[in-house]
Specification:
This protein has 253 residues and is of the alpha/beta class. It contains five helices and 16 strands. The chain folds into three domains: 2-93, Translation factors (Elongation Factor Tu (Ef-tu), domain 3, Beta Barrel); 105-207, Nucleotide-binding domain of ferredoxin-NADP reductase (FNR) module (Rossmann fold); 211-253, Dihydroorotate dehydrogenase, electron transfer subunit (Dihydroorotate dehydrogenase B (pyrk subunit), domain 3), CATH 2.10.240.10. It has helices at 26-31, 73-79, 118-125, 166-172, 190-202, and strands spanning 2-15, 18-24, 37-41, 52-55, 58-60, 63-69, 86-93, 105-111, 130-137, 151-155, 162-163, 182-187, 206-210, 226-228, 236-238, 245-247. Strand 5 (58-60) and strand 6 (63-69) form a beta hairpin. The longest helix has 13 residues, at 190-202. The protein binds flavin-adenine dinucleotide and FE2/S2 (inorganic) cluster. FE2/S2 (inorganic) cluster is lined by residues 215-218, 220-225, 238, 240.
């Protein structure tokens, strides 16, 4: 884990309110794994004081990529960074997706900004596993295909792709999936992850999801990011340290 000042190379708006930021960070690029995250201090000023967590979106050579939308002051400041400006990054943090398991097909299920970790997942699995991706959002503005491959689109309002949510879209295409040799990777709002969890458990699909919650330290010190465990021994796990990726069988979402 590093705390490192890394230089912004460019910030591109790729979609309505969605930014991709390319950052030169060789130390992190070398060791970070898909599904891990970074905790970023966006400014040297006292506000915003806390670091902001972001999934690693992609890695290319010595560069790392973030995907974010502008929600509040932290992401507003980040989006305005000019090439050459330094940002203070703590990471890599968290566990990441298990991509080396014995599965043949990766079924990626991304809801809205839950697309963020999947370009790196896709890059890592390409030419090794089959990939089928379900990308959904409330409207077509929320359907983000950046860095995705072989995707099926859906939107809650029918403005693009299948008219329904992304889990219904998966359900509708179940005949394209060999359940025994597939593994599902999900990320999106908790409401979506809950439905995905139920769907996968009911259909015997192995499934890992990247969860989100408010965070402070990002590495297990403040105890500020508990998630309920389904096991009796560890009642609560920490999203930052034990996650953010969990098998859906292990946590209450
Ligand atoms: C492990 C992890 C990975 C993440 N990866 C990404 C990513 O790749 N891209 C990205 O854009 N965001 C990601 N997030 C969420 C991101 O950290 C927040 O969007 C960011 O902290 C917002 O900072 P801000 O200062 O702009 O907004 P704030 O001022 O902190 O918040 C603005 C408003 O948004 C709400 N808000 C803040 N965080 C969240 C959240 N997580 N979910 C719902 N509402 C929220 C606040 O309650 C407030 O109302 C991730 C979060 C976690 C825990
Ligand atoms: S954010 Fe501090 S313990 Fe998880």
């Amino acid at each position: 884990m590093f705390i490192i000042n890394s230089s912004v190379i460019e910030t591109k708006q790729v979609h309505e309110n969605i930014f991709i930021q390319k950052i030169h960070s060789p130390e992190i690029a070398e060791i970070i794994k898909p599904g891990q995250f970074l905790n970023i201090r966006v400014s040297e000023a006292t506000f915003p004081l806390l670091r902001r967590p972001f999934s690693i979106c992609d890695v290319e050579g010595e560069n790392i990529y973030l995907m974010f939308n502008i929600l509040g002051e932290g992401t507003r400041i980040l989006a305005r960074k000019n090439p050459g400006e330094l940002i203070d990054i703590l990471g890599p943090l968290g566990n990441g997706f298990k991509l080396d398991d014995d599965f043949k097909s990766a079924i990626i299920v991304a809801g809205g900004l839950g697309a963020a970790p999947f370009p790196f997942v896709t890059r890592s699995l390409k030419n090794k596993k089959e990939i089928l991706t379900f990308v959904g959002g409330r409207t077509k503005q929320d359907v983000i295909t950046y860095g995705m491959e072989n995707y099926i689109l859906s939107s809650d309002d029918g403005s693009i792709g299948f008219n329904g949510n992304v889990v219904q879209s998966l359900e509708r295409n179940l005949d394209k999936i060999d359940i025994a040799s597939s593994k599902v990777f999900g990320c999106g709002p908790n409401a979506m992850l809950r439905v995905l969890k139920d769907y996968c458990i009911n259909n015997n699909l192995d499934c890992e999801v990247s969860t989100e919650c408010a965070m402070a330290c990002g590495f297990g010190i403040c105890q500020g990011c508990p998630i309920e465990s389904t096991s009796n021994t560890d009642k609560y796990l920490l999203v930052c340290k034990d996650g953010p990726v969990f098998n859906v069988k292990d946590v209450v979402i």
